[in-house]
UniProtKB/TrEMBL annotation:
SUPFAM superfamilies referenced in this protein's UniProt entry, alphabetically: beta-beta-alpha zinc fingers
Source species taxonomy: Eukaryota, Metazoa, Chordata, Craniata, Vertebrata
Originating organism: Chelydra serpentina
Entry superkingdom: Eukaryota
Name this protein carries in UniProt: Zinc finger protein 239-like
Keyword Transcription regulation attributed: yes
GO CC annotations, alphabetized: nucleus
Length: 389
């Protein structure tokens, strides 16, 4: 059974989710800054430190701890402009002095608030504050459960299975985020192009494609990235780190996604199928390249997604995927479909009809694409027979 995981408020998340949640929180702060037009201070800070400062400011607002504002308002009521100007100058001097005092005693780096300084100081005490060490890669964690969840990166364990598409996840937070893809809820809209997202942090990252902002810079070569995760993956090219080994052949990879793609060589899985001919591919890039071979002689283009079709009727059927119109209804179970061919295939579930038979073993299938996938199991290399004597 999967290890029980903490709720979002417990602060006990996986190593990857910890990074993502911290980045998401910081990017939500940045998003609020974009919407409200707020100008940030000149003191540089990491996303985590930015979130810490925002949290501190929020707490001060909730408790009414804003002496400068109260003092300014009271002097304003008396109409004494000189007193107000003097107060503002004193406040600026105090803020300047506080900023100078918020410096790390070990490295001298300055911070915009005490929470950011406290967060930074933990980096100097990582061994003491993170006693749980991964024996595979040396990464440390503050809680034992975080280490357990992290170790799934090395073991490949994915105990959280989506009931809708059978995709599996290492942690519950990734699983819950994935389920939003099935609900279709995307409340965050890009004001530049209208594209929708199910997370505010994803919207903030997307907006960098319009602004060209790349805030994450590699200290080795100076290359900049729009996402911290891309920077982390890039930095492995300098250190030679390949933390994702294949359990079947031992080959290692810099990214878990590359390992998953590679493992399909061993399993024979080809999840990306061509809708025209049923051919399957290991990578989506290979499928897209293959689909271009079907593009010739297709004058009918979908105005919504750009997909092209040879016949106008095919385009009409396709457009129902955008309008969600399903005029073909199954008389047995009531399920509806956008195309009559989809209904015909579906009805074979009720009738038991399997018209596509394998000429090698005689096994039959409901769909032609399933037959094609099955026939590849007969193409696996077998030991050659010894020649007759």
């Amino acid at each position: 059974a999967p290890e029980p995981e903490p709720a979002a408020g417990d602060g006990m998340v996986s190593e990857n989710e910890e990074e993502k949640s911290q980045q998401e929180g910081a990017e939500q702060v940045e998003l609020r800054g974009i919407v409200l037009g707020r100008a940030e201070g000149d003191v540089s800070q990491s996303p985590e430190q930015g979130e810490a400062c925002e949290s501190q400011r929020r707490s001060e607002r909730e408790h009414g701890n804003q002496p400068e504002e109260r003092l300014g308002k009271s002097t304003g009521k008396r109409g004494d402009k000189n007193v107000h100007a003097k107060t503002s100058k004193t406040s600026q001097q105090r803020n300047s002095a506080e900023q100078r005092s918020l410096a790390c005693g070990k490295c001298g780096q300055s911070f915009p608030c005490s929470s950011a300084l406290s967060l930074h100081q933990r980096s100097h005490n990582s061994a003491r504050e993170k006693p749980y060490k991964c024996e595979e890669c040396g990464k440390r964690f503050s809680r034992s459960l975080n280490l357990i969840i992290h170790q799934r990166v090395h073991t490949g364990e994915r105990p959280y299975k989506c009931p809708d598409c059978t995709k599996c996840f290492k942690n519950s937070s990734g699983f819950l985020r994935h389920q939003l893809a099935h609900t279709g809820d995307k409340p965050f809209i890009c004001p530049d192009c209208g594209k929708c997202f199910n997370r505010s942090s994803t919207l903030v990252t997307h907006q960098r494609t319009h602004t060209g902002q790349q805030p994450y810079k590699c200290t080795h070569c100076g290359k900049a990235f729009s996402q911290s995760s891309n920077l982390i993956r890039h930095q492995r090219t300098h250190g030679g780190e390949r933390p994702y080994p294949c359990p079947d052949c031992g080959k290692s990879f810099t990214q878990s996604s590359n390992l998953m793609t590679h493992q399909r060589i061993h399993t024979g899985e080809r999840p990306y199928k061509c809708t025209e001919c049923g051919k399957g591919f290991v990578q989506i890039a290979s499928l897209l390249s293959h689909e271009r071979t079907h593009m010739e002689g297709k004058p009918h283009e979908c105005p919504d997604c750009g997909k092209r079709f040879r016949y106008g009727s095919s385009l009409t059927s396709h457009q129902r995927t955008h309008t969600e119109e399903n005029p073909y209804k199954c008389p047995d179970c009531g399920k509806s479909f956008p195309q009559s061919s989809n209904l015909s295939r579906h009805q074979r579930i009720h009738t038991g009809e399997k018209p596509y038979e394998c000429p090698v073993c005689g096994r039959s299938f409901i769909q032609k694409s399933n037959l094609f996938a099955h026939q590849r199991t007969h193409l696996v290399d077998k030991p050659s027979e010894s020649p007759p004597k």
